[in-house]
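Second attempt. The first submission of Metallo-beta-lactamase family protein had a stray character pasted in from the spreadsheet, which I only caught after the job came back as garbage. Lesson logged: always re-copy from the clean sequence file. Corrected sequence (475 aa) follows.
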Amino acid sequence: MKLTFWGATRQVTGSMYLLEVDDYRILIDCGSNFDLNEKEKKALFDEQKSVFPFDPTLVNTVLLTHAHIDHSGNIPNLYKEGFEGQVVCTEPTFALTGLLLKDAALLHQKRLNAQQQGGGKKKRGKKPKDVPRDFFLEKQVNDALENFVPVAYGQRYRIADHVSVTYFAAGHLLGAAHILVEAWENGEKKTICFSGDIGRRNYPLLIDPQPVPQADYLVCESTYGNRLHLDQRSPEEALIDVIHRTCVEIPGRLIIPTFSVGRTQALLYTLNRLYVEHNLPPLKVFSDSPLGFASTRVYQKYSRLLNQEARAFQNSNDMLFDFENLIYLESSDASRAVSNYNEPCIIISSSGMVQGGRVEHHVAANIGNPYATILLIGYASEGTLGWRLMNGQDNIIIQGQKHPVLANIEKIDVFSGHGDRDDLVNFVKMQDTERLKKIFLIHGEHQSMLDFKETLQTIGYGQVEIPDRGQSYDL
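This time the job returned cleanly.
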């Protein structure tokens, strides 16, 4: 059995791992790499003469841990370049991945359309120059989705004569999974667990990460490998505190940049609970993300897979996410018109890193207002607008224009979907130190991996590897 690491090595994004069992090839995740800029990606793709560093026609099956684009975003390109197999994932992951990939295809189409404009006039028949190799359109997404095979948690599925897989709930996102692969080579059974992204306990809506059986090898994410979540309050306590300070004591507006899939649903559910419990004043809440709206419908559809608290709340109140004073903004015009709403309000908009999406114009419209607050509730990659705001920059540039930062900038981490260092340690500790042969750390900043490796070694896990891109191991 051979394992090669092709993504999320010594960085956070681009999860992609190739497992070879005899002549059967399994790709675990197929994510977009956001750690490279456009120029770096083009150089890499030109060198490879492909989006991928391997031949997609030789891959037999893809195992998908969850829907986020850094895990799923290159699946249409895999089919574009000749892959003919199936993508195995849970049912909610199938639904959410479809939404995210179609949203990405729409962005690609908009960029291609913009390239075809010359001086404001469309040049008919002219082909766009330098179309990025990793661009795909909706038809290619639909072609890929026809090959998805949904599976249930906790059931063993045989994907080849000598390979079986079992999916276990990972928390983090609706449908997210740890994947246990069992393979037989020369009469010997070998097992390897891919953590996916590990969630945290008692997170809004989601069930806690499920335990996984003993494995021979463990591929473990390390996003928060050297950090602890600081805020020990419940999401309701943390959110109502911010709302009272920013919208009640001061009649201002609260802008919450958030990811459309996962984080938006946790926010809306928490706000709904606050309204039902009469802790929230009658403020308008604007949810400004078409993708967020579509994802919320998926969460509602699969509510049977949510945690017991969420199911009980739905039984008592009918709706998990809809409440009085909640307004979904569908059109771009409606989104821009919110700037003219002068009463205290809450605006929830994507993206969470304040990089692209409608949230940029909300931040631009309010960044110079000392009565406005921008609440950051999740991870922001270095260099993004969210990262700059988080690090206290006095001026930021949005869409080419410089803005002084006069608005209040706050951060809470109660809505982070990633488990922290202690959650990661607890996940690893399900594996016996004597029986686990090796741990591979992926999906994290390099320093986070180094620190987490040291933590694991101090509690008895001696064989911990931090692979390089392209590094292979015989298991």
